[in-house]
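Case study B.
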Amino acid sequence: MTEIEKLVQGILAGEKKSIARAITIIENNGQKAQKIISAIYPHTGKAYVIGITGPAGSGKSTLIEKIVKKLRENGKSVGIVAVDPTSPFTGGAFLGDRIRMQNLSLDEGVFIRSMASRNSLGGLAKATKDAIKVLDAAGKDYIIVETVGAGQLEVDIVKVAYTVIVVLAPGFGDEIQAIKAGLMEIGDIFVINKADRENADRAVIDLLSALELNTEKKWKPQVIKTIALTGEGVDELLKAIEEHRKYLEAGELERKRRKRVEAELLEAISQRLADTIIAELKTEKTLEPLIEKIMNRESDPYTIADILLKKKIKLEKEKK
Amino acid sequence: MTEIEKLVQGILAGEKKSIARAITIIENNGQKAQKIISAIYPHTGKAYVIGITGPAGSGKSTLIEKIVKKLRENGKSVGIVAVDPTSPFTGGAFLGDRIRMQNLSLDEGVFIRSMASRNSLGGLAKATKDAIKVLDAAGKDYIIVETVGAGQLEVDIVKVAYTVIVVLAPGFGDEIQAIKAGLMEIGDIFVINKADRENADRAVIDLLSALELNTEKKWKPQVIKTIALTGEGVDELLKAIEEHRKYLEAGELERKRRKRVEAELLEAISQRLADTIIAELKTEKTLEPLIEKIMNRESDPYTIADILLKKKIKLEKEKK
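Model:
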């Protein structure tokens, strides 16, 4: 049995060590990574992926901890992928948080992985998608992806989820931030956390009116108040998640899945193409003089790319 | 004269309207965009690009305003590209800030553009790079790129700069953030802004010791205290920028430029390839059944991509 076969077997058996190893390989995004994904792919598509985003300090991680505990009580296994640099899962935030997370990670039914942007060669978004596949194949019932709501990348990553939860803390700043970061468009459920703070109700009202603006959505986003620290409102949140899941499973889920598969396929094709051709060009030493030309401003990348490709295709035709 | 030719002429003449129009076209990243870049490319490579990043609220924008004023006093023209969603340039932050920025933008020698992530189809990083080219071709002496130091994308964008300035405000949190976001590695100059706050000196010391860790760098990053609001320390900052520029121009700049040109070329090639092949596949209606196969978990994107490309190349060979 090859190393990869062993690893895949371990993943399918839900072994933490194999899962962790596989995700590391995926972050380095090489031949091996693709072999793994190919091998586990038939076993994916069962997990329900929940995206949780919001400004740093809105209490996402504490909320996740409470959600996970509930899911575990219901006998569900959970995978957590944290892409939020300020998250305790990724080693950020306060010691207290981190200790709570460690307790969580001791549970055999919970797998926590933080994706460090700087480590993922193929790009963070791709590494995250593939990590989700590994956890999916490992039989996790729920996969939670945590990102911080700043920057397009973070927002995009949440889109790999079926249900997107936007977590805000009371205070006008957050809502502004959320709108700027494009969170209003992506949220299926909005959580006003730290609801014991004053003007929490104000925040709810502001949020609802902001949501009014975007009417073309078929699903009417819900707004829920929580106090993550005490767990207040978490049951309501889980109910909302299940409602949204039912709504999706009534039809939209299939469409979402299809669109994602298409995107993945096109991405894979582009990647493969680029890799092969660029490798060829490098061995043929065709690049150096062209780079020179561009450096001297005699031409530009786009024009050169066009010329190269025309040549390439001609070559292909003349071959054999 | 075609529309594009007129536009390019306007850019080269430094006309604000043409510059603005061109950047909008670039954000929509189509054929037109590439024609524009190709046309202006020979006129690029003169501007000096400065990247400014740091946590939200560290005072980047106020600092930029002061830097720009100084550069203008020295008769330099300036382009500003703001990718920071919390920046007053992008419409964030407080009214007072925004008014100051508007005054700045009234200056004929200053062009301010905010890149809204959600608007750039080809990806924010590419749109930003191309916007810099437009401002470069428009004859700006300095181009300042502002991003918020959170998320890999933002950090990467700053790397299009020659001199990267990391702006922090006193307080331990910021440094932690900076380290997490990978800012320590990318900064050529570190600014402790709001230096009138207590423990500013403490922050400087923490920063210096954090910088000690990374020794392989040939350029020793400088740490400068500023009070952006009063303009204190801005002269020192400009001096540091010029020092770093001289250091780069002694050799490294050429290497940086070459590496970037190579990256741009490879990117352009991949893009072109993907576009052509995927367009073909779609017209050939080959995709639908394949997506079906993946949906049914009979295969996976990577395997299908491989098969497709092998077919494709065989086809090319058999053609003619």
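Chain A touches chain B through 71 residues (CB under 8 Å). The remaining cases will be described in the next quarterly update.
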